[in-house]
Amino acid sequence: MKIIKKIILIIFLIYIYIYICYYTLLPNNYIIMQGESLNINVLWGANLIEKNNNAQSIQTVSNINKAKINETGKIELSLNLFNLFKIKDIDVNVIPKTTVVPIGKAIGMKLYTDGVLVVGLSEIEGKKPYENSGIKEGDRIIEINQNQIDTTEELMEEVNKSNGQNISIKYMRDEKTITTSIQPVKNSENQYKLGLWVRDAAAGVGTLTFYEPSSGMFGTLGHGILDIDTSDLIKIANGELVTTNILSITKGEKGQPGEIRGTIEAGYTIGQISKNTNFGVFGKITNLAQANISNLEAIELSSRDEIKTGKAQIICELENGKTQYYDIEIQKIFLNNNQNNKSMLIKVTDQELIEKTGGIIQGMSGAPIIQNGKFVGAVTHVLVNDPTMGYGVFADIMLKEMKEVQ
User: Fold this and answer.
1) Catalytic site positions
2) For the chain, what is the domain count?
3) Sign of the alpha-carbon torsion through 393, 333, 370, 395
4) How confident is the model at residue 53 (pLDDT cuts 50, 70, 90)?
5) pTM assigned to the model
6) Are residues 71 and 212 in the same domain?
7) Which of 241, 299, 279, 244 is nearest to 102 (CA)?
8) Environment class of residue 325 by beta-carbon count within 10 Å: exposed (0-12), middle (13-18) or buried (19+)?
9) Pairwise CA distance, residues 282 & 279, whole Å
10) Cα–Cα–Cα angle for 187, 189, 190, nearest 5°?
11) C-alpha span between 243 and 290 (Å, rounded)
12) Dihedral angle at the C-alpha atoms of 189, 192, 195, 200, nearest 10 degrees?
């Protein structure tokens, strides 16, 4: 009997632990579009208290999740357990429906990291000065001897100023700041080194997705830019959106993704990048004339519940200065997916596009998806075993990420 009681107690404690962990991980802030429902996924026993004009109204989570919210602005909610214990406050920002200009032009991006990114480790004259420092690939060095580090040149200068003495290094890992020290080693060229390979910038080519005239903001890619060495999302300080020149197109085949190759060496800066996220790269257009988008028509951005399986189109640029609409089919819609950028399963049906590219290829990420005259999403992935198939991200997710930039 005692063993059974212990087992029941252990199960109960495990359940309480899971319950607490679940609510700890629940976001404190939500962004939804006007006309959407909230859809907060909570466990049994929870209620929401809405604070409005000093009056409090208690609603079940199921009721508030079903109701569509039509008034824009901020809603303050308190999540409670059995109406007795407060779990956490939740702020909901309801943003207005908007019109955007779907673009589909090939574009270049230059990203400058927040600090310098460690991309490799190597011995110096048979020694490993970094060995006991704790630093590893993917970390970002932000300070040396209390001096801010933004470029590889600044890092090299601080290291050589040390004359071989211990230096204090502050670096970031998973949003955590860590301080360590390293004693530099002199190499055969009489320069002091840490044994760390670092990078302070990255560049890439993709497709510009949309521009919001009311704010001047843009969204592109539908996914983030990852570091080629660490495969981690690059944490940026800032960046530039630049024009690109398409050089060639490699057709995609089964097991071998195709590619749009372009150069940004002679490109004009048309915007400033402020955020690199898992759902796209965002910033503000600063040069409308060079962007060459002022003559394009704005259309309504669709909420996900308006999207239907069936015919749609994507816009992309395969020849310099020429964007074109191509037919696709939306085959599946994952309405409740907010975790990644695989919101819709799509298939290219346009024979002209298939002949040119084989389907979806690298560099088409960000190509806007249009259905029934509305902007519904952007291309994000290709299925390697079938380049006519891929995924797209919901337009409302990209808009919400963009609004968080402001």
Assistant:
1) 223, 350, 365
2) 3
3) negative
4) very low
5) 0.80
6) no
7) 299
8) middle
9) 9
10) 70
11) 8
12) -100
CB 323 within 8 A of CB 297: no
pLDDT beyond 70 at 19 = no
Which amino acid does the sequence have at 312? A
Q: Judge whether 64 lies within some domain.
A: yes
Residue 236 and residue 275 in contact, taking contact as beta carbons nearer than 8 Å: yes
CB-neighbour burial class of residue 169 (10 A; exposed 0-12, middle 13-18, buried 19+) = buried
* CB neighbourhood size of 365 (10 A): 29
115 falls within a domain: no
| 131, 261: one domain | no
Claim to verify: residue 89 and residue 104 sit in the same structural domain: no
The domain that holds 160 is classified in CATH as 2.30.42.10
- Using the Cα atoms of residue 33, residue 35, residue 41 and residue 42 in order, give the sign of their dihedral: positive
> What percentage of the chain carries pLDDT values higher than 90?
44
Report, as an integer, the average pLDDT of 55-81. 66
Q: Looking at residue 29, what is its pLDDT?
A: 76
Cα(14)–Cα(132) distance, integer angstroms: 38
Q: Are residues 324 and 179 in the same domain?
A: no
Query: Under 8 Å CB-to-CB from 25, ≥6 apart: which residues?
Result: none
Coil, helix or strand at residue 254 = coil
Strand partners, 393: 378
What average pLDDT does the segment 144-153 reach?
Answer: 89
The pLDDT value recorded for residue 23 is 67
The residue assigned the tokens 């991006």 is 109
Q: Do 169 and 144 form a contact (C-beta atoms < 8 A)?
A: yes
Task: Please answer whether residues 295 and 309 qualify as being in contact, where contact means their C-beta atoms are separated by less than 8 angstroms.
Answer: no
Burial track 120-151 (b if 16+ CB lie within 10 A, e otherwise):
ebeebeeeebbeebebebbbbbbbbbeeebee
CA distance 62 to 48: 10
The per-residue DSSP string of 340-383 comes to SS--EEEEE--HHHHHHHSS--BT-TT-EEEETTEEEEEEEEEE
Sole residue written with tokens 């060639």: 248
Q: Which tokens is 124 given?
A: 């110096």
